[in-house]
Amino acid sequence: MNDSSNEEMTLERRKRIFQEELDVLWERRLIPKSEYIRISRAYNRHFQLALHKQKRLEQEKKKSTHGTETIIGESADKRIQDSLIEESSFQLRESSGLNESIMKDEKAGYAPIESGFEESLEPVKEINDRKPVIQKQAIKREKPVKPVKPKKTPEQIRERNISVILLTGVILLLFGGLILATTSWGDLNAVLKVLFIGMVSVIFAGMAFIASKLKIEQTSFAFLTLAGLFIPITILSASYYRIFGEYLSLNGGGRGLLGFIGGLLCLAIYCKIADYFKSKIFIFISIFTFAITCYFGLAFVTPTIEWMFLAIGVLNLLLLGNIEQLKNQKALTLFKPFIFQFIQFKIIVETFVILTLVSSNLVYSLTLMVFSVLFLIISVKFKKKYYEMAFSAVFTYGYIHLVYNSFISEYMIIAFALVPIIFTMLSKYLAKAKRTKLSKHFMITSLIESGIVFLYSNAMVYQENYAQIFVALMLLSAQLAYVSLQSRNSSLTYPAVVIFDLALLYLFFALPISFSTILNLLFVIQVVQYLGVYLYNRHPRYILFRKSTLLISPMIMLVILTIKFSEMDWLAVSAALAMISGLFFITYIKDETKNMKENALYGFPITFVLALVAFYPYLTESLEWVRSNFPLSVYLMGVSLVSIGAAYTFKKGYYKLFPVFAYSGQILSFLSLISIPFDSQNPLEASGVIAVATAINGWSVHIHRKQIFWVPVVITSASLYASLYDVFDFASMVLRIAFVLLGPITFFLLGEWLGKYSKSGKLYFFYASHLANLLAIPVGYLLIIFTESSPLLYVAQLSIYILSALRAHVKWEKYVFTYLGFSVLFLQVHLFVVNMEQIVFITSICMMITAGLITILWGLSNKNWKGIMEYYLIPFIHLGISISIFETAIRGFPLNRESVWVGVMTVQLLFAWYLLMQRNWRNYVAVPLGLAFIFYSMYVNTLPLVMAIIVLSVCMVVMLMASRRLFKGLLNQEGTKRVIDHYRIFGLLYLCTLNLEVFMSDTASAILGIFVSLLLPSYFILMGRFTIYKKEKSIYSGIAAIIGLVPFVNIIVYAHTLPIVTSLAVLFGCMAGMLLLSRLYSSGSLKKNGSGIISFDPFRIYGLFFLIDMNAEVFNDTKHQLLQVFVSLLLTAYFIFMRSLTAEKLERKIHSNIAALVSLYPFLIIVGYADSLSVVMGLLFLFGCMSGMLLLSRRYFDGLIKKEEAGMTIDAYRIYGLLFLLAMNRGFPATETLTQLLEVFVSLLITVYFILIGSFTKDVKEKGIYVWLTGILSMYPYWIIIMYADTLQPFVGTAVLFGCTAIMVLLSKKYFKGLLDKGGAGLKLDFYRVYGLLFLIAMNMDVLTGGPVHFILEIIAALLIPAYFILMRSTTTGMFERKSQLAAAILFSLYPYWVIVDQLTIPPVLEEEVNILPLFIVSTTLLRKIFVKGKITQYIESGIVFLLFLALIIDAMAGNTLYDALIIGTVSLAAMLFGFMMKYKSYFIAGTGTILFNVYMNTNSMWGEMPWWLYLIIGGGLLIGIASFFEWKKQKDNRTSKEVLEKNKQRIKNWFNRWN
Fold first, then answer.
1. 1202 forms bridges with which residues in the sheet?
2. Euclidean distance between CA atoms 304 and 1357, whole angstroms
3. Are 470 and 501 in contact (CB under 8 A)?
4. How many helices (H) and strands (E) are present in the chain, helices listed first?
5. Are 808 and 821 in contact (CB under 8 A)?
6. Predicted confidence (pLDDT) per residue in 987-1012, tens digit
């Protein structure tokens, strides 16, 4: 360890020895405790000062011996110790201050002082214990780890705040001095003005000297800063007032020289200050002054601003080139860390300025180039990121500017094409220098520049400067080719090849040739390029371009070929295809790659054939003989034969080409076949071409041996057969139809003949004959119909299916041919019947005849054929029946043959039902049953009502008998299949139809309708007797009960036709009958049998329905009100009677609750009856009903819900009592004149009602609920009282509301100790307080809105609000609630304040401040004294303060006057000082920011105003004085600003206490 560390340890040891001796003296009671604390504090202060002095001496010694070099090990350890000692000294000072305050408190005793003293000693005792940790941290700091930013101590924060205040004061004084220097102030001459301004700097320098002697370092530094900054102001003033002559004045020619000389003077002074104080601020000021001095000097020696910036760029080059020498200069040691950063910043700012000051001359271009070189040097030499981007941008811009402003502009496109080459060369140079990353960046830049140049070159096409564009694109192509070869990146070869081809295109544009010739030349070049670069390119270096050439050249050839095709230049198209065919052939021979060989294998024959095809339009355009003698079909057939010949030609040497040529020939023959209709040929020639095509297709079958090739043989054979129609030219229509219809049988026989040689050929012709027959069926049918030919011609179609069905060996073929034959049989029958004129229902009769013939065949066939026929016969019969029904619905039944028609339809329906039953398709009987239902429903519409009833009854009985015979329920399980009883369903449908017939009939009586409707429930009762399943029986019972609504409705309708009394008697009798039946057959509404099925009592339900209809009868009858009341009361009586008939307890309980709910209707009737009385009698009547409900509730219930074994019972008496009370309060008729006191009394009954109900209740929780309801519903009487007070005189209404408030306060004080009370009844709310506040608010609202009143009444009403909260606080015991009420009192005190202010006359300029300033006081008081939540309240306070200051700033900006600026400046100055003294960050920051913003916004507009610069100078001086005072006090007795304020406040308090 060095000597300093030994000395430090000596100080530590001395302090420890002294502390031990002092502890011994106190423990032995040799000194009092007050002396012990005082001596300990004094020694601690002495120890800290000694450590501070030692540290300062060591720092000065280190600077003088070692310069700026430091040793990591011990120096790091020492710095850490120093920082810890400073922190401990601050904690000691704080603890000493705490001990002083504790000693001054007489009630504190010795224990707190002892603990405070021990705490004050802990940091010092821990210093030695932390030394090993400090050494470890120093060792760790030897590693290059980023240091953690230490947290600022409170003392450091205070020092920072003092610095901010000083800096703000300096700014204010500086602006004040500047305004004073540049405005016309007084009648002083120029010399005196400059002398006075210079004296300001001298005065501040002297003050700085005095402050340094007083050890006020920050104040001294602030004054020295002011003195230094007033020096350039003095020089500026001297220039402004022309002290040095006109040449060196502010507008003279030598102002640059004056600025240079003044800058050198200021630079010397600032460097000296920076070296003395080691201040970063003066270091930056010195650097900035150096830059300004250079600008002034260069501006003096250069003729224009462009030359000046060029000189600045050269100066920057010199600085960058000699930066290491500058850093090694001893005189610049202080500036060493900032030299390079300064040069960087300087270059960036100057570049930005140059770019904004655009000029159009050569010097400006050179300047840009020089500055781009600066960015390149920084990027390459100093390895800084992103500077290469700046170089690229600035260099490109400078180069473009150079081109535009020099002789090179004539060759602009070529010049721009050199930019990517320059970047490529730079990238190659950096790559050789092993700067790979930077080289890659410039390579990317060169590619980007290439893209931009490419776009620009193509955009310049409109100038038609094709030669320059050609050269530029060739340069780009060469550059991209070079980059791709260097990087071995094949992706760059694609744009290189494209640009190369595009350059050739522009070259051809420059030549005097046509566009068609250009395309031809370009196509030839692509062919050569394909051959040379792709096929015959074997060089290992240039093989990189093969893939791109393979992709691009064919694409360009394809585009050119498309253009030629669109222009219909057939010779060129044919030649191009021929060349492409040759390329494919050469590729097939030379290229060994699999994909290309496969492509050439197909491409060569196809393009060869297409070339021959494309040659035909050229021949027809050139030779008339070809156009007249060789139609397209013949030419295509010739090309097809050439293709077949080429297939045999290449078969020996290139056997793989044979099938492709063969396929091509076959396709061409097919195209020749298609083109025949478009040629002008005679039928024989066309048949010959088709015959050749058929032969070629047959040859292809023989060659390829594939079944699929029989398809074109069949197609061409069919075409050949069709062409013979024109060859023979039949004269008779019969022969023509016969030729058409014999075609399928011809193909059928031809297939049979081919079957001897080829089975597949037979199948193709067999199915082709059937497809043709499917086409011949509708065609032949229509031809025979329209030409009225013999139906015997249609036999050929039927015979094909007969032969096919009989000869078929596959099952599905038998089915298909049989069903198709039956369909053709129907058409054959229709052809025979259609000519009979007397038959009307032709389709139905044909369907019947066809079904009869099929039935005969079915009867004569064996079992297998029967099975096949039944699948067709069953749906055919049903379709025939459906068509018959449809025709009957359209045309009606046949005249005089209705019975025959019904009989035939019945036979068909029975036969269809028989077939379904024979096949055991029992679920499908619904189809014939449904058709029968539709048919008989149509039939009964033609009969009289009695016959219709008989027919429908017979049908229903038949369905019932079938159901009883075949089924025992709706669903029968037969093995794994479920069968549905459709007979029951259709029996019900017949019954419904019967009811509908009676209902729609005009001759039926009401009694008959009731009788028929009663059959509906009877039907379901009978179905239940036929059923053996219990669940289904129960369902039938339920349906019978539901469907009983039909007779019920009929009875209701019948009763409504009678007089009202008779109607009510009938309905009452029905209801009584239902009740008697219910009493006889059931003992409850629901009944559960042994199997778990629940059945209900329909008698009770229908009895209720009859009762409801009774009430509906008298609902609108106003003549019989007592009868209406009686009938309404029957509802409640009905459910009470049901309760007496019920045995189960739960159901009895349900009936009771339903009776309570249903009683709402008689309640409404009673209320309506009361409305018919007078107002007072109506109210008394309703009050009596409510009282009766309350008495009944008290007699039978002790709560709203009564719990019993069977469930819960609701106290309906309470509910209806409340409803009667609400009916009383629902308003009074406008015709009645009642006093408002009666209205208030009725409204207060709501509160009294719930108080009485609460007293009747035993449950504690329910009592609490009633308390809450009482408080909430009391809003209504509160509102009534408010409305009553509004009708009185202002003073009387205010007195009434004040009386109500006083009553609420007294009740609250008597029954509650807080807003919320937790007791046995749960959480209770003190509604008295709430309503007291509401009455108070209503009082203020009446005073404000009630018209003109005395201002004293308005002030008193406003003051009652905070007084109310203070009074409530006195009756409250909870601490949090007391705080909340105090906060409310403080917050609501703003209202009386604003009311009082509103009564005063305040200048408009102070209105906003008077309104906002109390918000600062209130918010700070609430957040600092009442609700103290740490940082949360600080954040809230900061937000409020910032918003309030923002409002003040907006107001000042809106006024924009001198007084607004002075007021906001004064307020912000006070806020800044208040925040500094009280350590309130929000006020300090907001005040400081507002001061600076105010100076920034208003200095320009108020430059010459004396009050403004007086404010700046006085404010700045005040800030500096206060900061200096606290700094001096800190240096003197080491106390904080808060301690100084507390001491002064205590002195003032003692001074006032001495007064009598």
1. 1209
2. 78
3. no
4. 63, 8
5. no
6. 888 888 888 888 777 766 677 777 78
Q: Which two tokens stand for residue 246?
A: 């006109």
Read off the tokens for 852: 């009869």
- Nearest-angstrom CA–CA distance, 1287 and 550: 102
What is the C-alpha separation between 291 and 266, in angstroms, rounded? 12
CA–CA gap between residue 37 and residue 95 (Å, rounded): 11
303 three-class SS? coil
Backbone CA torsion sign across 61, 64, 68, 70: negative
Compute the distance between CA of residue 177 and CA of residue 160 in angstroms, rounded to an integer: 25
Alpha-carbon gap, residue 1268 to 1317, rounded angstroms: 12
Over residues 51-94, the pLDDT tens digits come to 777 777 777 766 655 443 333 333 434 443 444 444 444 443 44
Cβ atoms within 10 A of the Cβ of 1305, count? 20
Provide the token pair at 1250.
């719930």
Q: What CA–CA distance (Å, rounded) separates 581 from 590?
A: 14
Contact 1160, 1140 (CB under 8 A): no
Compute the distance between CA of residue 916 and CA of residue 910 in angstroms, rounded to an integer.
10
Cα distance between residue 1243 and residue 1239, in whole Å: 6
| CA 483-487-490 angle, 5° bins | 85
| Domains of the chain, residue spans | 3-140, 410-489, 513-613, 836-942, 945-1057, 1061-1142
Taken as a whole, the chain contains a residue count of 1556
CA 337 – CA 318 distance, rounded (Å): 19
Is 453:396 a contact under the CB 8 Å cutoff?
no
Nearest to 1483 by CA among 1518, 1517, 1438, 1452: 1438
Q: How far apart are CA 1208 and CA 1201, in angstroms?
A: 6
The answer to whether 1279 touches 1239, Cβ cutoff 8 Å, is: no
CB contact set of 1043 (below 8 Å; sequence gap of 6+): 1016, 1017, 1020
329: left (phi over 0), alpha (psi -120 to 50) or beta: beta
Question: Could you give the CA distance from residue 656 to residue 295 in angstroms, rounded to a whole number?
Answer: 85
What span, in angstroms and rounded, lies between the C-alpha atoms of 560 and 529? 15
Question: What is the C-alpha radius of gyration for the chain, rounded to an integer number of angstroms?
Answer: 58
**Cα dihedral value 153, 156, 157, 160, nearest 10:** -160
Residue 331 DSSP code: G
Distance between CA atoms of residues 1482 and 1424, nearest Å: 12
CA separation for the pair 734, 794 (Å, rounded): 12
Cα–Cα distance between 484 and 447 in angstroms, integer?
11
Residues 6+ apart with CB under 8 A from 1527: 162, 216, 217, 218, 219
Q: DSSP string of 1428-1458? A: --THHHHHHHHHHHHHHHHHHHHHHHHH-SH
Angular region, 1059: left φ>0, alpha ψ -120 to 50, beta rest:
beta
**Distance (Å, rounded) from C-alpha 280 to C-alpha 283?**
5
- At residue 156, the pLDDT reads 54
* pLDDT, tens digit (0-9, with 9 covering 90-100), for 801-822: 888 887 777 788 888 888 888 8
pLDDT, greater one: 98 or 1356: 1356
What is the per-residue pLDDT for 118? Answer: 35
The model's pTM: 0.46
The answer to whether the beta carbons of residues 1175 and 1169 sit under 8 Å apart is: no
Token match 């009383």: residue?
1224
Look up residue 1545 and give its amino acid. K
CA atoms within 13 A on the CB side of 251: 1
Q: What is the pLDDT of residue 1063?
A: 79
Q: Is the dihedral of CA 540, 544, 547, 550 positive or negative?
A: negative
Q: Residue 61: its pLDDT value, please?
A: 67
pLDDT, position 154: 56
